[in-house]
Amino acid sequence: MATAPRFESVPAVREGLRSVDYLADEGIAGVVYLADRLQKPVLVEGPAGTGKTELAKSVSRMTGGRLIRLQCYEGLDESKALYEWNYKKQLLRIQAERQTDATWSEIEEDIFSEEFLLTRPLLEAIRADEPVVLLVDEVDRVEVETEALLLEVLSDYQVSVPELGTVAASQIPLVFLTSNNTRELSEALKRRCLYLHIDYPDLEREKEIVTTRVPGISEHLADQISRIVRSIRQLELKKPPSVSETLDWARTLVLLGIETVDVDQAKDTLHILLKYQSDIAKAAKELTV
Amino acid sequence: MLDVLAGFIQELRAAGLPVSLTENLDAMEAVKHIPLEDREAFKYALGATLVKSHAHWRAFETVFEVYFSLRAGEGSFDAEGDGDGQIPPDGERAEGAPQAGAGGAMEALTPEQLAEMLFQALMRGDEAMMRAIARNAVTRFAGMEPGRPVGGTYYLYRTLRNLELDAVLERLMDAARQEAGELTSLEERLERDEFQERIERLRKEIEAEIRRRLVADRGAEAMARTLRKPLPEDVDFMHASRDEMAALRRAIHPLTRKLAVRLARKRRHGRRGPLDFRNTMRHSLSYGGVPAEPKFRHPRPSKPEIMVVADISGSVAAFARFTLQFVHAISSQFSRVRSFVFIDGIDEVTRFFEGVEDVGEAVHRVNTEADVIWVDGHSDYGHAFETFRERWVKEVTPKTSLILLGDARNNYHASQSWVLGDLRKQARHVYWLNPEPRSYWDTGDSIVSEYGIHCDGVFECRNLRQLERFVEALA
User: Which CATH number fits domain A10-78+120-197: 3.40.50.300, 1.20.120.1200, 3.90.700.10, 2.40.50.140?
Assistant: First the structure.
């Protein structure tokens, strides 16, 4: 089950990500590289909208692996995350067996075979023959007890199905877990992962992101946008603007045909950047001074 | 290498980071895959394997700086030992600067020339130049002497005072204004932010330089010990510095959000209520009258009503501020929250919080607008409680939990503790939160135990962690 390393070096990862329009900084590229070498999952934390999910998608695009996504929510359970028996089909099977005189143990053996197994994302990622990227999105939304479901997959890359035995991975998938940090994740989960915190990018990187992601934007406007956003982030806001909001704002300004932002235009479009009335008022006040 | 890593991890643990054995092994495995000469990559490799919470990152960075910066450059600091004010052989990094010559001969400059160079470097955002200036400024102004038992902040202060960065900022702004002709207010603000960030970078550079030299002087272990900074949750309310206060303010919002989520979850997933007989019978019809599927009532845990009575006199103001903020931020978990603040007079401040999105702003208004002074503006718990009883006692009901905040330093006024006894008979609970360490209680003019006998519980509440625990238990 050993998998050949996917990446040459840290700069190679960075270049690769850049080629799929994801601008990684040193830290992000380094952790992705290590995740591959150490064959460990990556736990990605950070404020909303800084490109956590995007990272996993970009890595899958870069490596050409299929992306398997498990969206977490409260009440997620085994049958949605790991596997489920297709009991309707099993019932049909039993009905059909009535005609013949098969013994119970024969039927039992029959209905608990792979044919009746419905794979869910985690098992699917493990069973895949081709390289895949597994994304467990917003893992902080499940209860602490449900986290335990993930542990076996994350540390040993295997799933135990009582009726079938253990299914081990034929290749080690790259695993990304994202968390918005609405609660502390358990120690057991954290211990099994590499940790990556993606923060708001610095001025240069944000400007680059804007230029690559927004077609037709001028250098000057991108520069101005990222500087205004940086200023706004320094205020004490309920929700500072995220990268995705910066991009939305940049697209808006391009659509409006604005080349140089002045205070009034900035104020008129602030609602794209900020989502709370009190934040908008505060930022508008600050920008005028 | 193994020894260094072991020492490093030891130090991380001492700084309060929970580093487990597996993480330790992972770190060792990880560094094998990283070219050791790449310091950044090395740092991220260690960070990703050892630090599992963003709150710990700062502590990690500090320890990392102390442990690994000097080991790379140990040789160049030996010259520093005699303390004759000579700058260390000006590193290769400065050579990379366009003005490599100027960087090397910096010690010959007059202070005016140095200031001019600083100005130029900041204007252009020239990193290498800034680094060289930071080194030179430390040598020149900090007056560092080997073995002198003062902290890095003292040296930092001395260096910064001599550089007069505020004046430099104004000069930079003037220059920017001239260059562009006329700046709009927006541009003006953006320029200022830009320069401020550059100055901040310079400050960090100076700080790092001082730290490097201190480490060279005292050794990494000793240095790491003095630099050990508590995590934001563990910062003592009463002794927090300005930076720590800012960190606390930033930490409190996510903390309350987490707590609110946790409490809401607890409420939803609490145990099932008693059997609902009617509903069970109703469902039994579909099983031919057999009650096969028992139905239960949804539990509706009562939400307590909270009255917070807080001392906001100078010594405990910060504590009151955070507690008010905390309680109001999760007010959805209570049926009602009312707050009162006092020094020697008392005033209800619930109105400041009503319909306000920004709790921090409301707390600020409390501190400036509430009418809390009766005679002289020194805490008088006795009088405040008496007034409270006179004016609001009718509104204290058996559903009310009363929370009193303060250090109970009464300036030798009458305690009037019977008031609390009275209130307790009416309220559901009376709790007292004291921001002082337990060992200080009942020393000097503190009379916390005199009040304590009338309370259902008296708790030490010195940091966010303790506060969070209390509020969680309450809801």
Answer: 3.40.50.300
